[in-house]
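Hey there, shall we discuss this one?
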Amino acid sequence: MFGWTGNFLRVDLSAGHVYVQRYDGNLARKYVGGRGYSIKILWDEVPPGANPLGPENRLVLSIGPLTGIPGPSTGKLVVAAKSPLTYGYGDGNVGTRAAVMLKRAGYDAIIISGISKKPVYIYIEDGKTEILDAEDLWGLDTFRTEKVLAKRHGADTGILSIGPAGENKVKYATVMSQEGRSGGRTGMGAVMGSKRLKAIVIRGTREASIANPEEYRKVASEAYRDVRSRPGYSFWRRQGTMAAIQWSQENSVLPVRNFSEGIFEEAENIDGFAMEKIKVGQRGCPLCNAICGNIVGDSEDMIAELDYENVALLGSNLGIGDLRKIATLNRLADMWGIDTIGLGVAIGFAMEASERGLIKDKIEWGDFEAARDLAENIVYRRSGLGKLLGESIAKVAETLGGESFAMHVKGLSITGYDCHAAPGMALSYAVSPIGAHHKDAWVISWEVKTDRLSYGKEKAEKVLELQRIRGGFFETLVACRLPWVEVGLDIEWYVKLFNLATGIKWGVSDHLKVAERILNHIRAYWVREHIAGGIGWNRDKDLPPRKWFEKPLTKGPYTGAKLDFNRFQGLLDSYYEIIGWDKRGIPRYSTLKRYDLLDVAQVLSKYVKLEP
C-alpha cells in the first residue's frame, strides 16, 4: 500500500495489552481514512447502546493517505468515539504534530479500548508502544502536561492531552495539543478521561511510502505556491478566521446574548481589526503555509490563541465586548481542555436562565468575572449549577425547563452563526453528522449571496454538496479545508496529490461517493445507537433550536425575521429526498445498497424497519 501504512495500533487499557493489526487495501478504498475509518471501527466494535464512558467504547485517532506528507495543510488527524454528549457518532479534527508523527511511526489509526485502573499515558516511538504511569500528570492543565511530556520525551514529539475538564468527564471536554489546537467538542476529552488516559505521545522517524515521490513533491510545491498567490492570502494571514466577526456583524448572523440577535453593539471592539492591534504572534498547524492562529495578550498578562468561534461564543454571545477578557476565557478553556463553543453556549444559557428567573444564581450579560467563575465551576464541577452545566445543554434545559432557549441540535451546542434569517444554515446544523456544527457545511457564506430567506430545494442540494466535500473529502484525506474555503485553492490539487501518493487513479466523483457512503453510515449509527440506547429516533432530532422559530430578531435589517416551522419541514424533506432517506431521516435500504453498505442495512433492520 502506498500513502497508507496498512497498520492499526490497538491499545487495550484494561488488559495493558498492545498489538498491531494489519488491514488490506479494500478498507482503504472503501473508507479512505480519518472519519471513514472511525465510523467503520465504531460501528463494528462498539456494542449497540454501549455507555460512551464505559470500557466498551473505542477512542479512535485516525489519519488519512495525505496526512503527514508535505502538502497544503496536511497535518491533521481525526479523533472519534461514541459521544457522551449526544450518544451518537462523535468526532473532531486536530491540527497537530501528533498527526505527522503518527504517519511516521507507521500507523493509520490508534484504537483504544478498556479503562485503566490508574492514570496512564501512551508513548509511541516507531514500532515500540508503552503504557506509562501518569499519576504525576493527573490534575495538571493541558499546557503544563505538554511541557512536562515534551521535556521527558523530546520537543519534537507529537502530544495530545486532556485537562481537568476531561478528567472530570465534562461532556464537552476536548483533546488538546500545542497550547491551542483543540479537537473533539463532542466529548472526546471526556472519553479519554473515562479511560484514565491523560495523554498520547508520538515520535516517528520513518518516511511515508509514496507511489510517485518525485512527482508528488513537485505537485505539492506547486500547490503551496498557488496558496500563496491567491488574492486573499495576505489578508487571511493577517486576520485568519477573526475576519468573520465583521462579516457576521454585517450580515446579521453574529451570535448575541445566547443567539437572541445577529448584531452586537460592541462588534468593532472584538473584530479582526481590534485583534490586529493586540496581536503578538501567530501559530499554525504542521505542513501549513496558510497559518491562521492569532496570538494576543489577554487581560491576565498571558497569551491566548484566538479564532472566530471562540470570540463569537465567549464574547458577543455572552455580551462581553472586551477582546482581552474574551482571550482570557479562551486561554483558560484551552488550558482546562474544554470546548470554547460548548462553554460559551452553557454560560449563555445560564445568563438567560438567570434573566428569566429559572436559577437563583445572578449571572448578568457582559459580566466577565461571573463568566470566568462559572467556567471554572463547570470544569471542576464544584457546585450544583457547575455540575449541571457540565452535561449536554439538552439535559440542562430538560432539568431547568429552558428548552425554548437551549441552543443545540442532538445535544451538541450551536456554533457561531445565528440562523433566525438563514434557513439553509439552520438545515446545515440540523443534519450535521455530529450534531450542530458548521464544519461539514458552512453554507451560510453562499446563502447570504442568494435568496437568503427562501426555503428552496437548492439550499438542501448545497448543504449536501458541502457535506460531501468538507465533511467527506477533507475529513478522509485528512487535510484542512481552509485553504480551499478561504483562499480558493482548487480541490483538484488534493485529488492529484492523493493519486500520486497512493497510485490510485480517482477523480473528484470517486471521493464524493466515499463521502456519501460515510454520511449514510454515520446516520445509520445514530439511529442504531439512539434506538438501542432507549432514546428513540424521529425526525424531530433534525430540528434547529426552538428560539429561532419562536423569538424574532429585534435589531438590524432583518428585524422581525424568524424561521418558519412548516417551510423548514419542507426544506428538511428536500434534503432527505436528495440524500436517499425516508421521512424519518433514516437511510432507505436502496440507499445503503447503492453505497455498498448492505452489511449495515442488515444490522440496522434489527432495530428499525427500513423503507425500500
